[in-house]
Design brief:
This protein is α+β, with helices and mostly antiparallel strands and 226 residues long. It has two domains: 63 residues, no CATH class; 130 residues, Immunoglobulin-like (Sandwich). The strands form two sheets. Strands 3-2-1-5-8 form a five-stranded mixed beta sheet, with no helix packed on it. A five-stranded mixed beta sheet has the order 4-10-9-6-7. Helix 1 packs antiparallel against helix 2. The chain starts with 14 loop residues before the first helix and ends with a helix. The N terminus is likely disordered.
Length: 226
């Protein structure tokens, strides 16, 4: 049986994802209040025997039930617009990661450093170690420093793809001939998994993404290996 823990949002690992979860909870509370109010009104109307054959209009009631939804939409729209602007904001990135979608694997380039680029393929099941995840682990992980503003430049070489990592609050389309960008700052070290979220062909399900967030010193040591 599916537990509640398996259907909730992933834990936030970036400030942006924290804001997305706050907005989700905020909107959900408003929806719950609307559902309870409408349900109570419907049940009350169906169970009472009050009638008024001479009621033709009620301007006060009509004004109220027009005004309340408008106010409710404002409470949803304002934080939503604020969040949309935050998603588009690029705050002086220290590192730029260029991601290119192919059929069916990802290529990565560290634009701030010379000759640091590699392809990332899903690991076949027969090559997995005991601690690795089937259909999620890759042969070359993306190494990024934690607590660092990172800019992501995303495009595709052939068909539409989508570079998505739920725990980081990132989901950006990879479009051939177009360069899309986003930003993130990872709060803590660890492994973060994602997948292509666009139906891009026969092997769409086999384009995993793995980000390994490490302290800055380990990231510098990793750069020296190239």
């Amino acid at each position: 049986m599916t537990s509640w823990g398996s259907v909730k949002l992933q834990d936030a690992m970036t400030p942006l994802m924290e804001q997305l979860i706050f907005f989700h909870d905020h909107t959900l509370m408003i929806l719950m209040m609307i559902t309870i109010l409408v349900s109570y009104t419907m049940i009350n109307l169906m169970t009472n025997k009050l009638i008024n054959r001479f009621l033709l209009e009620g301007q006060t009631v009509e004004f109220i039930w027009t005004l309340l939804p408008a106010i409710t939409l404002i409470f949803i729209a304002l934080p939503s617009l604020h969040l949309l602007y935050l998603i588009d904001e690029i705050n002086k990135p220290l590192i730029t990661l260029k991601t290119i979608g192919h059929q069916w694997y990802w290529s990565y380039e560290y634009s701030d450093f010379n000759k640091i680029e590699f392809d990332s393929y899903m690991k076949p099941t027969n090559e997995l170690e005991n601690f690795e995840f089937r259909l999620l682990d890759v042969d070359n992980r993306v190494i990024l420093p934690m607590n660092t503003q990172i800019r992501i430049m995303i495009t595709a070489a052939d068909v539409l793809h989508s570079w998505a990592l739920p725990s980081l609050g990132v989901k950006i389309d990879a479009t051939p001939g177009r360069l899309n960008q986003g930003s993130m700052m990872i709060n803590q070290s660890g492994l973060f998994f994602g997948q292509c979220s666009e139906i891009c062909g026969a092997n769409h399900s086999f384009m995993p993404i793995v980000i390994e967030s490490v302290p800055s010193k380990l990231f510098i040591n990793w750069l020296k290996t190239f």
